[in-house]
């Protein structure tokens, strides 16, 4: 955790600068690179139906599930060929944005 009175260094091209961290900066969540094997919700919604179960081998473009959001039924498609490792939500669940729904293994 960074103290708000502590100077934080950053670099723009070749110049190095020092500045005090704002409250917004100190409270932010650290960024993590997205894992392509984790299928997450891009918008909040309700899980309507799964077309796969754990252990199924699925091809790129196949429908994994249906997520209702903003009064639309959204087909969640498989991004690459793989196997369903884990389903983390169940039908009828209301899920927030960025919720982990399915874990895939290549």
TrEMBL record:
Residues 30-105 form the Lipoyl-binding domain. Pfam families: Biotin_lipoyl. Keywords: Biotin. InterPro entries: Biotin_Carboxyl_Carrier/Decarb, Biotin_lipoyl, Single_hybrid_motif. This is Glutaconyl-CoA decarboxylase subunit gamma.
């Amino acid at each position: 955790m960074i103290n708000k009175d502590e100077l934080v260094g950053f670099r723009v091209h070749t110049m190095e600068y020092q500045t005090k961290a704002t409250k917004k900066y100190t409270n932010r969540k650290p960024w993590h690179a997205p894992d392509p094997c984790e299928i997450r919700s891009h918008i909040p919604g309700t899980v309507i139906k799964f077309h796969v179960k754990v252990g199924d081998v699925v091809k790129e473009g196949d429908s994994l599930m249906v997520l209702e959001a903003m009064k639309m039924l959204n087909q969640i498609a498989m991004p690459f060929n793989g196997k369903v490792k884990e389903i983390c939500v169940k039908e009828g669940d209301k899920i927030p944005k960025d919720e982990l729904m399915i874990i895939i293994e290549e």
